[in-house]
Amino acid sequence: MLEQEIQYSRSSRTEVWNKMKRQLDVMKAAAKRGTTGDGVFSPTGLTGGEAAKMRKYRESGQGLTDETVLYAIENSLATNEVNAAMGLICATPTAGSSGTIPGVLFALEKKRALTEDQMIAFLFCASAFGMVTANNAMIAGATGGCQAEVGSASGMAAAAAVEICGGTPLQAAEGFAMALSNLLGLVCDPVAGLVEIPCVKRNVVGSVNALAAADMALAGLENKIPADEVILAMKRIGKRLPAQLRETGLGGLAATPTGTKMKMKIFGQELDLNI
């Protein structure tokens, strides 16, 4: 991926590497901002402050899962809350799925004491799988549902986690395939058309799913359906999803009575369920 970017951008290795370092720095800043103090809150008030709550819960030692999973949840929430609060994030591969990869990356940084260079390498690996997905299917919720956003991000994170933890390229592909397979069919149904509910917490699912897929791949488990075929399956599923379930905010959770009330409160508009 690094070599391809050097050729495509006609930049030096150092320039390309430093550009990815800037993306990492943005991720770090967003995660820190979202977990500091009481956290951040969106202008609508629909989301915010929950990453900080997770940090306090993790620090209490009362978590049901281990530190790695809790840290992934915390940083995933933080990143998407910063996005909802109009803060600076790195789209991975989209703004709506921007918390999935940081959640995994910063959890592994803590668990494996990753160096900055290792974290940058993680992002290049994730980017490679994201590029293949984008070129052969889609990564936008508007065209393929949330499976294309959080699903793709989860696969990217799983593959990079496998690679950075010493797995083979084949194992990385298996991790990607398992993570994406687990989220096929996931719809995009943002309440009030905003990237808040359920988007923020769906990124948590993407992060935890990626860690599980990476562990399975490192243990030698196989997805049985190859990564390339999983990507094409996602594409076919995405094309069959109705418009109401592709980021329009007209179906799914957005069309529930509570979701409709939230939209009315924010925009003063009723939801036309006949569209």
In a few lines, what is going on in this structure?
The protein has a single domain (2-260), classed as 2-methylcitrate dehydratase PrpD. Helices cover 64% and strands 0% of the residues. The protein has helices at 2-9, 13-35, 50-60, 67-84, 100-112, 116-136, 141-144, 146-164, 169-182, 199-218, 227-240, 257-267.
Describe this structure in words.
This protein has a single domain, classed as 2-methylcitrate dehydratase PrpD. It is built from 12 helices and no strands. α5 packs across α10 (199-218) and α9 (169-182) runs antiparallel to α10 (199-218). The mean pLDDT is 97. The chain is an all-alpha fold. It has helices spanning 2-9, 13-35, 50-60, 67-84, 100-112, 116-136, 141-144, 146-164, 169-182, 199-218, 227-240, 257-267. It catalyses: L-serine = pyruvate + NH4(+). This is L-serine dehydratase. GO terms for molecular function: 4 iron, 4 sulfur cluster binding; L-serine ammonia-lyase activity; metal ion binding. It is an enzyme of class 4 (lyase). It comes from Ligilactobacillus apodemi DSM 16634 = JCM 16172.
| Name given to the CATH architecture | Orthogonal Bundle
How many structural domains? 1
Q: How helix-rich are the residues, as a percent range?
A: 55-70%
Number of discrete helical segments? 12
CATH level 3 topology = 2-methylcitrate dehydratase PrpD
Task: Characterize the biggest β-sheet.
Answer: none
Low-confidence stretches: none
What is the molecular shape? globular
Tell me what portion of residues adopts beta-strand conformation: under 5%
CATH top level label: Mainly Alpha
* Overall SS class: mainly alpha
Radius of gyration: 18 Å
What does the oligomeric state look like here?
Answer: single chain
